[in-house]
Specification:
single chain, alpha+beta, five-stranded antiparallel β-sheet, 26% helix
Length: 546
Amino acid sequence: MKLSVYVLAFIYLIAILGYSYISFPVLNYGFSELPVILMFFSIPFFGVYFGQTSIKSKEKPIFKVIMGIGAVAGFYAIVWAGIVSWSLFRADDYRNLIGDLKVGESFASEVAPVSTENIRIVDEQVAQRLGDKVMGEKPSLGSQTYLGEFHIQKVNDKLYWVAPLLHSGFLKWLTNKEGTPGYVMVSATNERDVKLVQEVGGKQINLKYQTAAFGFDNLHRHVYFNGYMTKGLTDFTFEIDDEGNPFWVLTQYAKKIGFFGLDATGVVVVNAQTGEIQNYSIEEAPTWIDRIQPEDFIETQLDDWGEFVHGYFNFSNKDKLTTTPGMSLVYGEDNRSYWYTGLTSVGADEGTVGFVLVDTRTKEAKWYRQTGATERAAQHSAEGKVQEKGYYSSFPITYNINGVPTYVISLKDKSGLIKMMALVSVQDYTIVGAADNLQEALREYKSSLNSVGNSIRPTSESQLNEIKGRVLRVAKDVNGGTTFYYLLLKNKPNKLFVASSSVSQELPITQAGDSVTVFYDEAMQSVVDIMSFDNLEIGLEKDKTK
């Protein structure tokens, strides 16, 4: 049975509309999804037109129009896209898309030192396991919903992994169209702080608009058909404001180099309960939104910056740089978040030539020219420290420890439980501190940093706290083969000072009643680490480099 051209045209139109309803093609220059579909859907018309000899003359114009649309769409999506986007002609544009990559002066001045209470030890994998556990405590939830993707964010100056409850299928959505009842928060610094949030301000949470919903409750479809057909949208992230109200944050982007060169231009914020949509430029985005720049955008732009250092024709790879695998989110002294990644020469495996911090909102980037270890090398070093236990490491997070860039790593057993913590120097991955908890690992790490002959020097004494006083009590404790000395001072009885003999040879012979001078850091804690020590009663000559 031969189909009428009008039936074929009707099927063609329905197919295009159906595709738009399902896949949300962007109707703007540089976006090729719809042209590609127009091209493929026109192929049957070419087959019918050239395969039949009995086409009526009044049907030929319809065939020609649809075939013409397909041909133009194919040329636009394949030939034209390749010409205007080819890096042979646009190498400088690709290299400069990241913007002005400034050379940073000091990592310590950009990334604030933190107390152990604020160091991130819970990664996404552990957060997912803890979230599933709290979900399992309420069987009725587990049968209706599942946990979405966790994203890390600061909520009232505390780091949390946050994930929404999502519909577990079409029938679950159909019988629960008012929305799923809440979200899960997992502290990134304390694995015991896990909570299921189902109310905010005394009102029940219903996440009506979400990525797992259907119909016009589907988040992307809701935004697309409310004025965003011509806008590129990506990185759909569930975030909460400081009051706990749930939102979806979508990065709005444009293609700056032909059909490539993806670059963030703003954010679309959707109230997960009411569906209200707000559009913000990068400068106007609410302060509670931690990140606007998607990780993959930044990684690609940095790789292009390193790839086209000498243009397109650089087959010898001279001066080429590339990012190390994986990025981590760190927080600076200004309380803003940054993407952190190492830079390594093309072909190098374990070493870096520096690292980059990129503001996750403005994309301002700084390059710190400091050689060191890649994240993977640091993971190997941490795992090797406890190789007899067979633990595997989480992805390293970079912190400022006494002015020294330091990888902080969780060591987990085969079931994913955190068993130990490790700290590895970015500059020298042989300097490792590992222990059952973060404070002991930090103490061991600082002891290594203060070792005689170590070329890495912590923050100078002028940047530390100084106190003079008389020793009230002194005691020692052996941990992991290292002896630590604990001191209480008469004029500072609320702080316990601790260090190993690698800090000072005078510590083992210090007694109660001695007059001492102590330089220390992390004054916000009750137990603080001594960075330099002077027993004024003894007067031994010390290594001034400490």
